[in-house]
Design brief:
Helices cover 46% and strands 23% of the residues. By secondary structure, the protein is α+β, with helices and mostly antiparallel strands. It has three domains: 8-159, Regulatory protein AraC (Jelly Rolls); 165-210; 215-274, Arc Repressor Mutant, subunit A (Orthogonal Bundle), CATH 1.10.10. The strands form two sheets. Strands 1, 2, 3, 4, 5, 6, 9 and 10 form an eight-stranded antiparallel sheet that branches. Strands 7-8 form a two-stranded antiparallel sheet. Strand 3 (34-48) and strand 4 form a beta hairpin. Helix 5 (187-194) crosses helix 6. The protein is globular.
Length: 275
């Protein structure tokens, strides 16, 4: 008997690329499961709406079985005018009767912009952690997390903010920060990107998101660093550098203040969960 409430996660993980990468499934069969891919760092190119388009931080891609899939990671010009290869993402291959029902309940775009906030990221992180466990007597847990993620996605789509000129500018600033947090930039760079003064940029961002531009930048950098500490083999010094911190001493201090432990302790504690 088929369990109509069944939801399965087949593969889930976090990838961070600093070298060119390419994969494609463009034949008539396409991919054979549902695929959700969330860009957390940098840029890449992926196929959606019939073409290979630019994917930036905060972009979520959603594919159904048999849809063509193509991903290309190569040099891209960031907002600072630099040619870099940097792309980080969560990816989940999933399926099941519950997912079929969820998918058919409403139309959703293949590419959508979502917030890089803790509430959303933690669901991807937990699913990836569940899939990496060496011993997992409760595999259905990842399925429950996946259901929550799907429903949270629908809530995010429903609650997209009504666009005004002020909120549009604030979200453009937010996207600039998320895209460039791993690089050094000034408030002047942020303001110039949206064509307004520094004081107006600071005021609009604070008014819209109730936090400062610089604090949000640090939060994004720390979220990048946390994912790399857990999932990548990078040294802690390299994590700090690639996450946009000028030096390891400063990174150590703000990381400890945010998470209550040193980067090394955090890595050990989280990798113990995978055993």
């Amino acid at each position: 008997m088929i369990n109509v409430d069944s939801c399965q996660v087949y593969v889930a993980g976090f990838s961070f690329h600093k070298k060119p990468f390419y994969t494609s499934q463009l034949d008539v069969n396409g991919i054979n499961t549902y695929l959700m891919r969330f860009q957390t760092d940098g840029r890449c190119r992926a196929r959606y709406d019939g073409q290979l388009g630019l994917i930036e931080s905060g972009d979520l891609l959603l594919y159904s079985p048999s849809e063509p899939y193509e991903l290309k990671i190569d040099k891209e010009i960031n907002s600072l005018g630099e040619l870099t290869i940097e792309s980080g993402d969560y990816h989940i291959f999933f399926g099941g009767p519950w997912i079929d029902k969820w998918w058919n309940a409403q139309a959703r775009p293949t590419r959508m912009k979502l917030p890089l906030n803790e509430g959303f990221l933690i669901l991807f992180r937990q699913i990836a952690l569940e899939q990496r466990r060496m011993e997992n007597p409760y595999p259905e847990i990842s399925g429950y997390y996946m259901k929550i993620l799907c429903l949270e996605l629908d809530r995010q789509l429903k609650e997209q903010p009504t666009t005004t000129h002020k909120s549009y500018l604030a979200y453009q600033i937010k996207h600039y920060i998320e895209e460039n947090a791993s690089h050094m930039f000034k408030l002047d760079d942020v303001a110039s990107h949206v064509g307004i003064s520094v004081s107006r940029a600071v005021h609009l961002f604070k008014e819209t998101f109730d936090t400062s531009i610089m604090q949000y930048t640090i939060d994004v950098k720390l979220d990048m660093a946390r994912e790399r500490i857990i999932f990548s083999p990078m040294s802690l010094e390299n994590v700090a550098e690639t996450s946009g911190f000028a030096n390891y001493t400063y990174f150590y201090r703000v990381f400890r203040a945010r998470f209550g432990m040193s980067p090394k302790q955090f890595r050990i504690a989280n990798r113990e969960q995978l055993k």
